[in-house]
Design brief:
- The chain is mostly helical.
- It has one domain.
- The protein contains six helices and no strands.
- Helix 2 packs parallel to helix 6, helix 3 packs antiparallel against helix 4 and helix 5 packs antiparallel against helix 6.
């Protein structure tokens, strides 16, 4: 009889754990929210200024998204490692034995990897979506691409907000609209600040 589970079974087991789903959602929402706001700031500073440069816009969005992914992925990895280690120690004290190299330990490690990977990917998703108009429209239509990109950023906020509302038992349209309004408000404020400089 084989006791070792396949990676697919282990991932399924991790996702069924009561704490994993809410933690994944919470971190993903926070990270994609922050990433989208950062990209809105980048768009205002680089695409809505005088003489916007397509290469600078594309490079800034890509490098910022990767940097945010690494930052959030590593910080969440470290935080979750600490939390999982504390949980494992409590379980070891209760069971009066070491849980090193057990299925519990391997599940704990996989949980950490899944949560940190989601946080690494979230900024890349926001970056890829908002970058698309620039790649399609190219050098001659930077301002139009920027307007579409801002619209996509606000749409990301709406979709994430709606998903939050739905999973939290609230009105998804209202929650999505709140997130979108926050994004639009940030855009207006930052655009006004940029116009003063």
């Amino acid at each position: 009889m084989v006791n070792e589970q396949g990676i697919g079974d282990r991932i399924h087991r991790v996702l069924r754990a009561p704490d994993t789903g809410p933690t994944l959602r919470r971190f993903f929402v926070n990270t994609i929210f922050d990433s989208t706001f950062v990209i809105l700031g980048i768009l205002i500073a680089s695409a809505f200024g005088n003489d916007p440069d397509l290469r600078v816009i594309v490079a800034t969005i890509i490098t910022s998204s990767v940097a945010l992914g690494i930052s959030t992925g590593v910080s969440v990895y470290e935080a979750e490692t600490m939390e999982q280690n504390l949980r494992m120690r409590e379980m070891e004290r209760a069971m009066l034995r070491s849980l090193e190299d057990t299925s519990i330990s391997r599940t704990s490690q996989l949980t950490i990897m899944l949560i940190s990977s989601v946080n690494f990917i979230a900024p890349l998703i926001a970056g890829a979506i908002t970058l698309t108009p620039f790649l399609i429209l190219g050098e001659g239509n930077v301002r139009a691409a920027a307007i579409i990109s801002v619209g996509l950023a606000i749409l990301i906020l709406f979709v994430v907000g709606a998903a939050m509302g739905r999973s939290g038992g609230r009105n998804p349209w209202k929650q999505g609209a709140r997130m979108a309004i926050a994004g639009f408000g940030a855009f207006v404020i930052c655009y006004w600040i940029e116009s003063l400089l």
